[in-house]
């Protein structure tokens, strides 16, 4: 054997040896769709979670429900009667309706943009002449009112809820316009703008523009109607699940018009997400406008965050004093990701997102955002 041939053989053997000792880093084997139900159930049990999750892989939706929606009556999550609050995830829907109206009103006397001052609709609200529609949508109005979620034990009409808010804001100090405060206040005011632009209630617009347009069968505002039940929320305490039950009263939901009074299922909420930016609900250019507001100071725009360079979209929601959580993260084309609606959790936002990320890693490895 020639010396040159010996060198080649030696090099090949060394290459094979190194490959065996230090194999190339690859994505781990991911669970199949058939195994996903078991994976999610084991994860939820370990993390002390209960609720429903829509797992989306290559456009195929698999809804997996775990645990109890109501301990009394032993009603399981996944029961066709059960609805969940989406909390702040509703802000994206309200933002989308505002953008939809921007598109519809172009060229008319009622035309407006993200730069339009909200004094057009709220002449008696302090600083309204300085605040734009976009600043409400990006939470940079300077308004902050933590008490807005506290149950006032009054069943408000939409008009009364918005009027109460305007009066209360006029009584309190506020930060300068441009200051970021994540607050329901901004989206309740946007719900009021939808009412004034259309001459119809937010509920009417929601029903026509969202529910009927998309054919949603398990979505409503406020308390569930006949034949439907709101999941009760629970937490883990002293080593036991399903403790400290808390539901949402009709009065509390009536306060949060446009910002937290939407009830739905994981499947319905995914249907809504899949319609954004496709032309079915908003056109691609309109959805781009919603998610790229000039007034944004961080990645939040129009009700959601874009991360990974815009490759994924996400939002998280919870309601103070209750144990519900809502979280979605999807690829920009809506073909992969999750929608999680929980009625029991043992931790806060980071804990919920951490559990969600474990599912996301099984859908598409190293694609989604951890936070």
UniProtKB/TrEMBL annotation:
Location of the Beta-lactamase-related domain: 46-350
A Pfam family assignment: Beta-lactamase
Top-rank taxon, per record: Bacteria
InterPro entries the record matches: AmpC-like, Beta-lactam-related, Beta-lactam/transpept-like
Name this polypeptide is given: Penicillin-binding protein
Taxonomic classification: Bacteria, Bacillati, Bacillota, Bacilli, Lactobacillales
Gene: pbpX_2
